[in-house]
Design goal:
The protein has 160 residues and is mainly beta. Helices cover 6% and strands 41% of the residues. It has one domain: Immunoglobulin-like (Sandwich), CATH 2.60.40. The strands form two sheets. It has a five-stranded mixed β-sheet. It has a four-stranded antiparallel β-sheet with strand order 2-3-7-6, with no helix packed on it.
Length: 160
């Protein structure tokens, strides 16, 4: 059974027993002239019986403006989502760790990311990015929590 919801708390805890509360840490690109603007490290704590965890970051602003790109635009420039498969932490079996490389092309054309990791993100009320974290249980139930942010590097599980 597949269940998805907005925010950390599942609507049906019989199907999806664990809330998705994660820790995220922005990190600079590996090199100054790389094709990535930076990386996002994610860590999620779940209970037992979880078979796999995956993450998907969607650039909503970019996908809404794809029609404005010229046809000859490269695949990298057309990319509107990133996925990662989390790995289980060998020291903590309920902890799962994932990493996403944010492409530099996501910064072009006024899609803001505020990659300066120390900078406070401005509040405009536009959620340009969506992060989905999906865990699959041993019984094959698939549970997806969705979060929104106005930049690709700053996330919080619960609204303050």
């Amino acid at each position: 059974m597949d269940l998805s919801w907005d925010g950390p708390d599942p609507k049906d805890t019989a199907v999806c027993p664990y809330p998705v509360e994660f820790y995220s840490k922005p990190s600079p690109a590996e090199s100054l002239n790389s094709l990535e603007s930076g990386r996002l490290f994610l860590q999620v704590e779940l209970g037992g019986g979880v078979r796999s965890v995956a993450g998907r970051l969607v650039n909503k602003a970019k996908s809404e403006n794809l029609d404005k790109l010229q046809d000859e635009a490269s695949k990298i420039k057309r990319q509107t989502s990133l996925t990662t498969i989390f790995v289980q932490d060998s020291q903590h079996p309920n902890r799962w760790i994932g990493e996403l490389s944010i492409p530099a092309s996501w910064l072009e054309g006024s899609t803001r990311t505020h990659e300066r990791t120390g900078a406070a993100s401005p509040k405009s009320g536009n959620n340009f990015y969506s992060l989905e974290i999906t865990y699959t249980l041993d019984n094959s139930n698939s549970c997806t929590a969705r979060f929104s942010s106005e930049d690709a590097f700053h996330w919080q599980t619960r609204a303050k």
